[in-house]
Write a structure and sequence with these properties.
four-stranded antiparallel beta sheet; mainly beta; 182 residues; disordered N terminus; five-stranded antiparallel beta sheet; 2 helices
């Protein structure tokens, strides 16, 4: 029993000291919190990627975007992009602007969306939770009869605290396609 405790203690000490000489950037690469392995290999390189208006990640096509936190000085962007037949959402943080005010963003998280049916659409920034507008909610919805009545099929929160997309219960979300009124 004592032998097992000594071995465990030595293992912990070695593991702790082995990271002491590493730079912070090296530690972030090996940190389990980075969790890059949760993403398909073809998208893992995107997490942490910073890009600007002239350096959009190649092979991706931007479909729509939504900025929130603007009035709070803490801007995030939900970017709907496609690559081949895959729809993704990127949760990005504004890291700066160029002289013309164009944004530079860092991809914090990504979400591969389920394949949408013809009658479904992605809504960002136009959903309510408990009757209150919630800018962090993204939903895949189907509009029934008109653009005023929707059935939410999938929902996520672009959580600014954790800087991750989190699944959200669809039965507590109401959405409205605001473009219907334009």
């Amino acid at each position: 029993m004592l032998y097992r405790k000594i071995v465990i203690f030595i293992f912990i000490m070695i593991a702790g000291f082995s990271s002491c000489g590493k730079k912070e950037s090296d530690l972030q690469k090996i940190s389990p919190d980075s969790a890059r392995s949760q993403y398909p290999p073809e998208f893992q390189h995107l997490i942490g990627l910073e890009f600007g208006p002239d350096s959009f990640p190649s092979g991706f096509e931007e479909q729509a975007g939504y900025v929130f936190g603007f009035m709070e000085g803490n801007e995030y962007v939900i970017d709907h992009v496609t690559k081949n037949q895959t729809d993704l959402l990127w949760l990005c943080k504004l890291t700066g602007r160029d002289d013309e005010g164009r944004p530079f963003l860092k991809i914090l998280d990504l979400l591969i969306l389920p394949r949408q049916q013809e009658n479904e659409m992605i809504l960002m920034g136009s959903c309510k939770v408990g009757g209150e507008e919630d800018p962090e909610i993204v939903a895949v919805v189907e509009f029934i009869d008109n653009m005023m009545v929707s059935e939410v099929h999938h929902a996520w929160r672009a959580d600014r605290k954790s800087e991750r997309f989190k699944p959200f219960p669809v039965d507590s979300v109401e959405c409205l396609d605001e473009s219907y009124f334009l």
